[in-house]
Specification:
mainly alpha; globular
C-alpha cells in the first residue's frame, strides 16, 4: 500500500468517523439528557424503548438494503442494469407502516393518533436516510456524509428547542433532523429516483436481502432487547438506569460504526482476505482498546453524574460491565464485517442464531436471579463468547486461502 493510499484511507476514516461521531455525540450527550430531564425516569424509559424498536426495524430494513446495495452495485453497473432496490425500499416502508403502530400500542398502551403518526414518520425518514447513504459510500463521498450529518445536528438543535419550549412531543426532535437531511440527500443522490421495476438480478438480490434481514434481525435483537425486554419486565426507570450506564460504552461504539462502514467500502474491492496483512496492527489495536476501556470507565462516573443526576448513582455499579460489553461488541462487529464480505450471507444466520439463543438464555436467567445487575453481567459474558468464537472463525477463513462467495 503506497503512502498516498494510506493517507487516503486515514483521511476517509477521519471523515467517516467525524460524520458519524458528531451527530451521535450531540444526540447521546446533549439531546437525550435534555429529553430525560423533561420526561422523567419512567417516561424517558418509554421513549428509549420506542426508539429502540425503531432502531431494530431500521437495522433489519434500511441497514440491510444499504449493505446489499453496496455488495451488488458493481454487478448492476457492469451489466448496465437499473431497478429492484426501490421495490424493496417500498416493501420496507409498508412494513414500518404496519409494525410501528402495533409496537407503539404495545409499549404505550395509548391510541393517540397524532403520536402514532409522528412515530411512524420517524421510521420512514430513518429508512430513507440510512439506505441512501449507500450511494455516498460507493462513491467514497465521505465529505458529503460529513455535510449531511452537520445538517442533522442543526436539525437536532431545532427539534430540541421545539420540544422543550413549543411542542411537548419528543418525536419532533428526530423529525426536524431527518427532514432537513432528507432534503439534502434528495438533492445529492439518485438512488431513490430509480424505476420501480424488476431486473434479471431481482431474485438474487431479494435472496441476499432476505438472508441478511434474518441475520440482522437476530443480531439487532441483541442490540436492542435490553430496552425492549427491560421495559415490560422491570419498568421504565430500570431502562433509564441501564441506558445511562451504557452511555459510556457507546463512546466505543462511536469508533465501531465508521470503522465497519469504511472497512466494507474497501473490502468490496479486495478479492481475497489475508490475515498476515493485518497482523502488525493487532497488537496496537489491543493496546488501544484496553486504554479505551480504562478511559471510558474513569470518565463514566462524573459524566453520568453531570448528564443524568436524577438516577446517576444507581447507574454507577453497571458502568464497568456495560463498557466491557460494548468493547466486545466493537471487536466482534469488526470481525463480522470481514465475514460478511467473504462468507455466504446465509452464514450470518448461523452466527446470529446461536448468539441470540445464548443472549436470551444467559441474560434472562441471570436477570431472574440477580435482577438488573445479573442481566448486565449475562450480556457481557455472551458478548465475550461471541468475540472468541468469531476470532476462531476468521483464523479458519485465513487458512482456507480462498474466497467463499
Amino acid at each position: 500500500m503506497t503512502n498516498d493510499s494510506v493517507k487516503g484511507v486515514i483521511k476517509n476514516f477521519i471523515l467517516n468517523f467525524l460524520s458519524f461521531a458528531l451527530p451521535t455525540v450531540v444526540l447521546q450527550f446533549v439531546v437525550q439528557p435534555l429529553i430525560a430531564a423533561k420526561l422523567g425516569g419512567d417516561l424517558n424509559g418509554q421513549y428509549l424503548t420506542l426508539m429502540s424498536l425503531n432502531f431494530f426495524l431500521i437495522g433489519i430494513s434500511a441497514t440491510v438494503l444499504n449493505t446489499v446495495r453496496m455488495l451488488q452495485n458493481e454487478k448492476y453497473e457492469k451489466n448496465n442494469v437499473v431497478g429492484d432496490f426501490n421495490i424493496i425500499f417500498l416493501f420496507y416502508a409498508l412494513l414500518l407502516i404496519l409494525i410501528m403502530p402495533l409496537g407503539y400500542l404495545l409499549y404505550v398502551k395509548d391510541t393517540n393518533i397524532i403520536d402514532i403518526l409522528l412515530y411512524v414518520l420517524i421510521g420512514i425518514l430513518y429508512l430513507y436516510h440510512d439506505y441512501i447513504f449507500a450511494q455516498y459510500r460507493l462513491r467514497m463521498q465521505f465529505n458529503k456524509i460529513l455535510i449531511n450529518n452537520g445538517i442533522l445536528i442543526v436539525g437536532y438543535a431545532i427539534g430540541t428547542v421545539l420540544f422543550m419550549f413549543v411542542l411537548p412531543k419528543w418525536q419532533f426532535v428526530f423529525i426536524c433532523a431527518y427532514v432537513l437531511t432528507g432534503i439534502y440527500d434528495f438533492a445529492n443522490t439518485t438512488f431513490i429516483r430509480e424505476p420501480l421495476k424488476k431486473t434479471e438480478f431481482f431474485s438474487e438480490t431479494v435472496k441476499k436481502v432476505g438472508s441478511l434481514m434474518v441475520a440482522n434481525s437476530l443480531n439487532s435483537s441483541i442490540a436492542y432487547f435490553d430496552k425492549l425486554l427491560l421495559f415490560p419486565l422491570l419498568g421504565g426507570v430500570a431502562v433509564s438506569v441501564y441506558n445511562t450506564a451504557s452511555l459510556v460504552g457507546k463512546m466505543l461504539y462511536l469508533v465501531s460504526f465508521p470503522l465497519n462502514s469504511l472497512l466494507l467500502s474497501y473490502l468490496v474491492k479486495i478479492k481475497r482476505f489475508r490475515l498476515a496483512s493485518v497482523k502488525k496492527y493487532i497488537f496496537r489495536t489491543v493496546v488501544v482498546l484496553i486504554l479505551g476501556y480504562i478511559v471510558c470507565v474513569l470518565v463514566g462516573y462524573p459524566l453520568t453524574d453531570l448528564l443524568y443526576p436524577l438516577w446517576a448513582s444507581e447507574s454507577h455499579i453497571f458502568i464497568p460491565i456495560t463498557v466491557a460489553s460494548n468493547l466486545f461488541l466493537l471487536i466482534s462487529e469488526l470481525i463480522n464485517t470481514v465475514l460478511l464480505r467473504y462468507y455466504k450471507i446465509s452464514f450470518q444466520m448461523i452466527i446470529q442464531s446461536v448468539n441470540l439463543v445464548m443472549y436470551l438464555g444467559v441474560s434472562l436467567v441471570a436477570m431472574y436471579f440477580w435482577g438488573l445487575l445479573g442481566f448486565s453481567i449475562g450480556v457481557s459474558i455472551v458478548a465475550l463468547i461471541k468475540t472468541v468464537v468469531m476470532l476462531i472463525i476468521i483464523i479458519r477463513l485465513d487458512k482456507k486461502q480462498e474466497q467463499i462467495v
